[in-house]
Give the backbone structure.
Amino acid sequence: MKSLINTFLLALLIGVTVTAQNGYKVGDTAADFSLKGVDGNMHSLADMKDAKGYIVTFTCNHCPYAIMYEDRLISIQNEFEPKGYQVVAINPNDPEVKPEDSFDNMVIRAEEKKFNFPYLIDDGQKVYPVYGATKTPHVFLLDNKLEVKYIGAIDDNARSADDVEERYLANAINALESGTNPNPSTTKAIGCGIKSK
Amino acid sequence: MKKYFLIFFFSFTTGLSFSQVKVYEKYDEMESELLTNLSPDTTYVINFWATWCRPCIKELPYFEELNALYEGQAFKQILVSLDDPKKLESKVIPFLKKNKIESNVVLLADGKANSWIDKVESSWSGAIPITLILRGNEKNFYEKEFHSTFELEEEMLLLFNN
């Protein structure tokens, strides 16, 4: 009996691992979530009524690549929120592994940078594996039906905003706005691996 | 006391023997110089890391130890730093000195990561650390953190002993 339970647990574990590795691909429908934001309230995509799209961005406090993109994420929100596209930032890291990414430090960072978008904590780390986020920053652009339209980087030059040649995310949102599919629909960038125990 | 003095003296001298870090502005430059025309009998261990990446720093001693163990054999190791090139003098070199890293370290400054991540390995998500172990036409890719020299050496030996 015990071995049967073990087998079951193992199967469960494998199942979970496989899901975690796969994550979403462009065309999949993303799951909504309910996560606590730095304002103390719970947020979900369904709350953002009339949104034409959601810019779900896994990011954090400590990662230099996430920090490089803070100002650009604020600009994206300034540029696209009036058109109906909402940045939703989620910190996926386990604060016990990375204390800089604790909820209290998120509140401090959001205040310092005057984040103009919700900054949520993936408490218990249940959301990022479902999306298949592997690093910070890692963007998933969803349309109003939560269909994944674009996955990847914000633009083509992390180190220098001045030397950006292709604004992947902005182009992808503009594609959505004009009723076409983003091209490229996936890109890659260097980032910090998501911290978990 | 004498022992401590010797340790101190030793670490001081090895610190001095530390070599320079070559900076590559473009990935293609680095690829053609370090990753092409590889000797078919040599096992290459390439690790991508950065001083700000904690798991990278945690596994670095294992790479350093592997290098010490196999130096002079058909083995070559390159540690590719993805640090900000502006922080080479202020952060990377002091880090290498402090941790007595003797392995070959280069810095890849190419910010256009989407253009080169797939050239390194198409299954790489972009998170670091990663390690490539190459020999001849064989290539093993690890998007993970190693937890001991033994674990790393075992993977290296898969190709080394071939």
Summary: DSSP finds six helices and seven strands in chain B. Helices of chain B lie at 2-16, 27-34, 54-70, 88-98, 113-120, 149-160. Residues 117 and 125 of chain B are 8 Å apart (CA to CA).
